[in-house]
Amino acid sequence: MAGWKATEFAGAGPVHVEQKFHGEAPALVLDQGVMTGITWTNDLPLMSYEISLEAMRVAGGDFFCGLTFPVGKDPCSFIVGGWGGGVVGLSSVDGEDAAHNETTRYMKFEEGRWYRIRVRVLPASIQAWIDDEQVVNLVTTDRGLSIRLEVELSRPLGISTWSTAGAVRKPSIRRVKAP
After folding, report:
1. Which candidate in 14, 83, 137, 156 could, as Cys together with 87 as Cys, close a disulfide (CB 3.0–4.6 Å)?
2. Domains (ranges, CATH) in the chain?
């Protein structure tokens, strides 16, 4: 879990590593606060890369994985479990957040279950999967990408929760070739 630091959100809950989280491998735990997060402190690619991790809602009823990432010079966030627990999508596309653009989906998430999250950033698209299901395939040509003001401190790469305790494990970043 080296390379991550707690994000200094106002009203953040504590962030800590549990070596045997739920009796399993180590995990970064983001305790419930208004918004709690971690931010990557090392270099990372800005294009043609893939981020993967596992995330879990530990307690609460809102997003347990707000993954903010760079798309070239612009930031974007992939929200998992937002707006009361079930919204999935990108925030923001052409000024519309994850609850109000064409990437919006509604899914049910179980508390205490690990979900495999994967986001791929290519020169003309953003793709995202939860477990093995592709949930986003957005062509980004001539689209405005941005983030909500609340997650600005997550830039360039961060993971956050909203009024929810979450856990993250196995984060990785790898370069990919554009098709």
Report:
1. 83
2. 4-175 (2.60.120.560)
Residue 61: which residues within 8 A CB-CB, separation 6 or more? 84, 85, 163, 164
Measured CA to CA, the distance from residue 78 to residue 40 in angstroms comes to: 16
Sheet with 125-130: list strands edge to edge.
15-18, 27-30, 164-175, 49-60, 114-122, 125-130, 133-139
pTM: 0.96
Which residue spans within 20-176 are E strands per DSSP?
A: 27-30, 35-40, 49-60, 65-71, 74-82, 87-91, 105-106, 114-122, 125-130, 133-139, 158-162, 164-175
Structure tokens at 125: 């698209």
Which residue in 86, 64, 68 sits closest to 77, CA to CA?
A: 68
